[in-house]
Amino acid sequence: MENQRPQTVPRVLIFPMPAQGHVNPMLKLAELLAMSGIHITFLNTDHIHNRLIKYTDIETRYSKYTGFIFRTISDGLDEDHPRKGKLVWDIVHSLHQKAKPVLKEMLVSGQLGSGDSPSVTYMISDGLFGEFTIDVGEELGIPTVHFRCSSACYFWSYFFFPRLLESGEIPITNMDKLISSVPGMESFLRARDLPSMCRVTDVTTDQTLHMVHEVTYQSHRARALILNTFEDLEGPIVRRITEFCPNIYTIGPLHTHLNVRLAQNSKWSSDQSSNNLYDEDRSCLTWLDSQPPHSVIYVSFGSITVVSKAELLEFWYGLVNSKQRFLWVMPPDMVLGEDGENSVPADLEEATRERGCMVGYAPQEQVLAHSAVGGFLTHSGWNSTLESIGAGVPMICWPYFGDQQINSRFVSQVWNLGLDMKDVCDRKVVEKMVNDLMVERRREFAESTAEMARLAKRSVNEGGPSYSNLERLIQDIISCWTN
Ligand code: UDP
Fold first, then answer.
1. Ranges in the chain annotated CATH 3.40.50.2000
2. Residue 22 annotated among the catalytic residues of the structure
């Protein structure tokens, strides 16, 4: 590195877990930092980067920020690995096993720098990478911060995994029993609301269960913890987490935060592009334009969820029988066990033509912000939850895995932003919940969701807590580089 130019700007390495729900918020954080003049190296796995290049214009879009570069690393899996459903944990296990020496070599060799910022001066790694990025940071003297893309409530619950085991609350014997081992949640958290990894029967040997606890615990070694949440939503839980991680930056909702700062700054025009890993079908926005206000329920289970054909039909019949209009996102690989026999019952087809629209992937933020949308049937992924909150849209939650089980409990019981349908997939229940959300309890949810959307915006406006925390993070990045 002797021949390199002197470092005149700080450079931050941002390294997300390779999945849509992690790449999205970390790209938004990257852009917010780049707007303040910091140089960014965004490290994707080859698999993710190839998909981003195929479906988006990210390389040209981010080239407007001086010093913003993309680099790639292998996830260590075969190219034909599905990287879908619960198999996504294979990616985390693989990176834990293989990525540490590669990352270190990339940093030492200078491959992750460029131009006026040849060296990485600060690292923001996905918290799911646990100790290996912190170890590399310590070995090379690079301050390293963890970014957890999930909710604070999920993160907090994971600290108590040993206590859940000791008390016998896991393995779970009664799904409706209240859980006493997670401080602050004793009055509403049932066994079924615990992170889905707690549902395994072999709690002593299940690798994922133990790995997630270990990575959560490792965050106390990081210089700081970044969470995509905001004070009015999860402030009390965030304060509890400071027992383990004293320096926390809550800077969310990141999508709102970015939109607000782009709108304020004429230098960086906001565009409509996304960072999606699938081919986005924007025709649904035109369809929405022709629907009455608040009349459409938007249905999406995110980028990882898979459902059986039987489940698909229960949802479909429930939606059709509710008589409400619907926009449904169905990524090509969402339905399990497709055997080539894809015939759809004629009554469903006809009703869908009349009052439905189906797409493979949607521009979700824009869909949720559309005036025709009045509800969201969601898998309660954390980004989807925040995007719904930011748009003031009430939710029906059907969690699939990970943090979604606890997020949905908070949505329904703590924040009163919708209904929780977890562990049930029945057309009658779908029909009833859709009508409850869109008709019967519409006014009640309209009030609670509008208020939370207002608080979300306030948090990212100048002077708000998320705004100030981002400024504090920027100052930390600058001071680590100058000292
Ligand atoms: N998303 C999208 N269009 C779709 C489905 C998903 O733009 O049709 C985006 C969505 O806006 C969110 C992310 O993909 O930012 C999904 O993240 P989330 O945490 O909700 O769920 P995951 O996909 O990780 O399960």
1. 11-149+222-274+459-482, 283-440
2. yes
